[in-house]
Amino acid sequence: MKLLSFILLLFFLSSNGQSYTTEWYNMDNGLPQNSIKDIVKDQYGFIWLSMEGRVLRYDGSNFVQYKDFKLKNLSFGDFYGNIKKDSIAVFNTSETKVLLISRRKPEVIPANNESEPGSAKEKRYKRIIKNNITVRYVSDYIDSYFVRLDTGSYYFEDNNIVYVDRKSKKKTELITGFPCSRLNKLFVHGEHIFIGDPANKRMLQLYKGKLSVIEVPSMYNDPETKIYWQQITGQVFLINHGKIYRSHFSEGNLQLTYLLEYKEIDKEISGAMLYDEDSNKLYIGSSINGLKILSLSDFSVSRKNLPYQDEVCYAAIPYGSNSILTQEGIRYYHNQSERIYKAPQSYDKRYIFQDDSGNLIYRENNSIHVRYKNTGFTKYDSITFNRKEIDGLYKSGGLYMASVLSGNQAYLYIFNHDRFKEIQKVIPCKDNIDAVFRYNEDLLYLGSSNGIYVFSFTQNRMIKQIGKNLPVKQIIRTKDGNIWFTTYNRGIYLLKDQSAVKVPTDKNDFLANAHYILEDRNSNLWISSDNGLFRINKNILLQYMKHPKGAITYYRYSKKNGFLNNEFNGSANPCAHALDDGQFVFPSMAGFVFFYPEKVRTYYPRANDVYLERAKIKGKMVELKNRLFLECGYKDAELYIDVPYYADWENIYLQAKLLDGEDSQWIDIRSDKIFRLTNVEPGKYTLLVRFLSSENGKFVYKSFPVEVEAYFYQTLMFKILVTGVIIFILIIIIQTRTNFLRVKNKVLRNTLIHKDKELQETNTKLKNESDYQKKLVESISHDITTPVKFIALLSQELTQSGDIRTQKKYFDSIYKTSEQLYKFTLSLKEYTELYKQENSTEEEYLIYDLIETKKLLFEEIAAQKNTFIYNFCDHHLKTKVNKNILLVVFHNIIDNAVKNTSDGDIIITSACTGTHLEICIADTGNGMSDEQREYYSGLFRKREHEHLIFKNYGLGLHMVVQLVMKINSKMAFHKNTPKGTIIKIFIKYDKKNTNCR
Hints:
alpha+beta, Neuraminidase, Immunoglobulin-like, 5-stranded antiparallel β-sheet, 5-stranded mixed β-sheet, 72 strands
């Protein structure tokens, strides 16, 4: 027997108990002190810790501390009350007030100090609500211990057990000779009290005032067994040499359930324990070491535990229904490992499979090793290929294959079944081969660093390349026939219609380096990766890929769930197993991970387990009721999202956003579960919080109103008022501007009207001037015509005359006339600009000289007509009237007189009246008609009208009339006696321009 035990000890290298992970909180990482008195979980899912002077609330991520209560004695002890009724009190017998925990917060209320029926008031009573390994029951200062149940109370006093019925108050003595030291074996299930009796190996049962003895498993009466019982939680634990069991009472029998082995519990002097079935965690509170949380794992990690050997695992084969075997000869079970055959530590762990005979085929030192099963795997053969490197070994669809490198060229060798020395076919490939999968009898998929090459046996060639540039790691077919493949750092892909479709990754992109996929009976895909093991329902994933709406959610398992390392391995063949007993096995960097997929739980909060009740504003914590109100001027605020959740909080995808527009983005909430509001504009908003509450991928939403108070200048009324004032000012400005523009416009209109009139006048003047200029030119032509015509006639006469004296006479007349004509032409420039010249000049000149100038011009012409021109003007009469105007006037009148007078006289005289200077030109010629004299005289009577209408009576005299009007003078036309015409020019007398004596 001893030999058998020794052999078993050699073969079983390691034996693992229930797997769990540990979290430890003390004063160094979150607790205000290390002493924990009691632990309880309320109906809302929060866990409460009782400590000295304070209580703590724990939600799985953070501790919320409550202290500064108005109590004299803050030495809090055990919890009691009723969880279902939301009434948890902290036991403190010396106070008249009690700390009540209700609706997720504590408050001080008056204590209910009921007298104990059937007991004397002078006795000292102590209620038993919890039993643990630290309690000591003594009778030195306590007269009676009691346990209160719904049906009645049990008193342990004077070495007796007395029952007092709750309704009838009847006292019943149940047993005598019962020392209080035996109470450390007491525990309660419902209305049943159990007291262990190790000395007699029996269990006492008290129920409704009746005593009985029942049979129980020996563990209950083992002297080494310690009992923990807490009345408010109803939980009973048995601890025996570090192994922890839970006690249950069902159908009249006590039963035990093994939880885990935690050898340190005996050393930590546990004062409080709580097992949370919802999260599968055991909470242990110590009076000196703080809080330890043991998370029971649904996963088991199996290791070999050999000295100087690592625990890195890669390829293995299923060996039996519940274990796997590696090429090192180590057989791994879920909780232990054993050596099957002796082999050195392998440094080439990536490829292994079994042939049809059960022999192990693996790669070692660039050779194929065949280890024979019929020798107990103790003998093996090696097969090598000269100057070629064996890169990988594969078995798929009945084919035995190896990827081989020769220089830069890759080949796939297909062997003749399990005869590895016989190469049946060689398939060249452009890129290195990392995965081989036989799709059907004809097609072979070769996963490479450049996608998947599809080889056809019937066509004996590569017929297709799928997923070009994708470095393929593994190719997997699920139960529905879908083909998936994983890549190196490029994620997971699904083959659909002979093309690669990207599978959506997780939010942290850990699945970019996914390894392998196994599908369980419930269509869940289990995906190993470099950072955790992921789970997702295949149908939900495919539906999302077909209609990508909402968010795809993966559930991630990590070291918190019992792994020793988050990094799994996948660049091997095979790198995952589904065993016959239903277990899945994945290799990791620290052993093989075993688990039953149907038994692995997912943890989600309940749909209503989100509370928005706390906020920190300006560094001060405030309690919220129905909304968050932020006063004006706040800089930042922190809103606490309280969700009691005790697993990896990233799996619930807790997010929040402030609805302030259509572009509001979801913000991931960190482990502190705080939503921060910074510089939010005044107004009313809605905070929307969501989290995942089940495996189906549906989110639970909760809204919470948020209001940011505005300064008076930020309010709507102020903005309306300011807007109104601005509009009013703008209206005033616009109105003022309008009035200004209206006035200016009116001025401009008047100016335009005035300018228009001026322009019309100017236009009329310009027109008149144009007419005048035209007529002036004609007049000049007319005035020149007479002298020129005279010269022409004399010249003709000169050519016809032979008399020298007559010729001399003609020459003299031509000379004189020409000279005067020349002088006249010299003044033509001033003559053409008469209308623009000023009426007067600074220079003073004689009237006589002006008349004499014109007399000389026409004298010879008049002489030819036997007419004499006499200048009887005053030799001293001077004037400043424009000289050129007067010359034109005199020229035209004298010219007309010369033309119309023959054998007569033209007499020119001057005179001064009281108001005018009078120039009279009288001729004895043909004379003007009465109508003409009346017409020209009437022109001066009509000079005040805008427009003068001239008749066609002669251009020259019309111009004279206009020039005389220009110098503000008049003309009079009279009949001369006996014949002829007298024209008088009345130049208005002005001391500035006329010198009359």
